Structure formats: C-alpha cells, structure tokens
Amino acid sequence: LEATEEVTQLTRDDLCALDASDPIAAVRGEFVLPAGLLYLDGNSLGALPRAALDRVIAVTRDEWGQDLIRNWRGGARWWDRPSELGARLAPLLGARPDEVIVCDSTSINLFKVITAALAMRPGRRAIVSDPNSFPSDLYILESVADMLGHELRLVDCRGPGLDAALDGDAAALVLSHVDYVTAEVEDMAGATLKAHEAGALAVWDVSHSVGAIPVNLGATDVDLAVGCTYKYLNGGPGSPAFVFAAQRLQAEVRQPLSGWNAHARPFSFERDFVAAPGVERFRTGTPPMLAYAALEAALEIWGGVDLAAVFEKGGRLGDLFLELVEQRLADPDLRALSPREAKRRGSHVAYRHPRARELIADLDALGVLADYREAGVMRFGLAPLYLRYVDVWDAVGLLGQALAG
Ligand SMILES: Cc1ncc(COP(=O)(O)O)c(C=O)c1O
Q: What number does the ligand 1 atom closest to the CA of 44 have?
C-alpha cells in the first residue's frame, strides 16, 4: 500500500484478501453495523458495540431494577465506576491507572482543567491556544479568560508565533492533539516542552486521538488533558468524557466545580469541602450510570486487541483512501486537507470541495455516512476496529458516483 504503483494495480479482490489476513478483522463482529451502510463517521460517533446494548439492558434491569440504591457503594459499586473506567482507559492514553477519571463532558472538563491550571500559575495572565482548535474549546477558554480577567492568545501553534506567545505571562498552553478538520497530528512532546520551558502548564484535548493513534501523555510530560469517549472509543452518544491529571500535580491541583463527588469523604456530608486525594477530585456530581454501563462494555473491547495493530490499520485505511481518491477520481475541485504521511494523521481524512455539503447528502443517499464541516469540508472517519479495506474501496467508488452527479 505504500508505493503508488502497488495501489494503482490494486483491485477490489486484493482488498478482500487484505481483509481476510487482517489480524483484527474479527473485532468488527463485536459491533452492530446496519446492513447496506458504509459507516465513515466513527470519528464523530462510534458504532454501537453489541456488548454495550446488552450491558445497558442488564444494568437497567438487574442493578437499577432489583438492587436499587444499594448499588452505589454495595452490590455493583457504581460509585467506583468513574475511577475504574479511568484505569481502563489509561493504556490508551499512555497514563497510569490513577491519573485518569471518567466524568462529565469534554467541554465541562476543559473548564475544570484550564481553571485549575491557571490557579497553579498565579500572577500569569495569559492562556495560549490555536485558532483552529475545536470551537467548543475556544468558547470555554474565552469564557474562563473573561471570567478571570485573563487574556486568550490565539496563535498558529506550528508557526513562529508560538514562541512569542509563550512569554513570562503565559500560564497555560491548550492544544488539540489531532486537528478536528484536517486530522493533522500536533507535536505533543515538542509543544509541551516549549510550554514548560516558558513556565506554563501544557493542557491537551485528545478527543480525536484517543483510540485512533498512540497517545503518550506520560512520556510527553503533559500536565492535564481532556477527551471524549463517543468517537473511536464507541461509548455512545454523549458518553462520559475524561480528565487526565499527571500524578506529580495531583496533590496541589484544585478544580472549581468541586461538587460532593470530588470530596474526600462524600458520604459524610461535611459542611466544609476537602478535596479527594487523587484524580477523583476532578469529579463533580452523580455519574449517569446507564451511560457508564455502555462505555464500560465498549472499553472492554480494547482489552482484547493489539493496540499497535489497530493504529497501524488506521494508518493504512487512511493511506488507501487518499491513494484511491487520487488514482480513481479525477476531479480538479477535490482537494485533500489531511497529511499524506500516516504518522502525521489521525484516523480520518478530509477534503475540500465547492459542493461538499451536497456530496455528503448524495453519499448518504448512496449508503455512505460521512460528515460535512464548515466551510466546504467532507470528513471520512476510518475507524479501524470495524471498517474493512474493501469498505474504503466501495466508499471511494460511491464518492466517484456522487462527484459525477
Ligand atoms: C476536539 C473536541 N473537543 C471538545 C469537544 C466537545 O465535547 P463535548 O460535547 O463532550 O463537550 C469535541 C466534540 O466533538 C471535540 O471534537
């Protein structure tokens, strides 16, 4: 798949053969995938794991239905689920089990971690980020900056402006690991180092990288991170998000939404707040247990797969998509936005086209679900757990039909 010649000569049968020898091909069977649909939107909402469906029914019927409130601390021990699922996620983040907690949404978690980071750098008044970050992240940063009288500095984090923005007034650098439009991977180690050299904390949003590419929060010395679980982790619509807090910061970090779940002794209902000792202090209120049930089942899938094989397949699916579009579709208006090199790319590919919105609607009618993003961008998610090489062949063929009108 690497050399152009090889791809030119590929046939649909070759891709079926590649699927037959795919070491993780069997994982596809663990998902509910509607017949006749090519689902290329797992970068927005992952497919439904069969076990998640069963688990939600079982938790509802047996735990909620039978043992009721006993389950919080006895029985199924619902109270422990946020830290248990955090520990389960840790290998996908290159983190220690006690550095991750599953709770709230990504936006809420970003509010908590950026406010916590700013409090750890008193006297510094600037938040540095990139204007191409996911809009919700920018809205949250902007509102925190307004609330605290800080300055939000938006600079191209790959350009020379980053060094200037990271001056003695910079409290935190907040970046996305994978660009939500282009899928370009940011240099986590390099940017974190720059932030630290400037005396700032490094905060990352890994929503588009967790489960798609290797994430090494520990090895890259990241301070705080957030991410969602409904994309490549397949936790379901609105499934709980997560916070990573490096162990070395946990004793001193304090977040502002310190509800009773973040208390060291939540069930003693003390008048005064005392933060829980570890990453538990990032919890807020009562966790939605039916959503945790779906996520728990979805995360169990990762325990049975070779992560290196998953990430390698994601890269190859992207290479194949980009290559086949070049080879099979001659449309001068179609412009790839994603890097060609697999290791600089997340697990989706994006294209700009003047008729992008219409093409996505036409693809939907042809049985390909992908998504449209402003302005004029088509995104094709290539979730390696359940997508086959032959699906890429077929999707590119149908994109060709859509382009031909
Ligand atoms: C990179 C990124 N950050 C944050 C969010 C917002 O997440 P939530 O809706 O869980 O707050 C998203 C949602 O897609 C995202 O892609």
A: 14
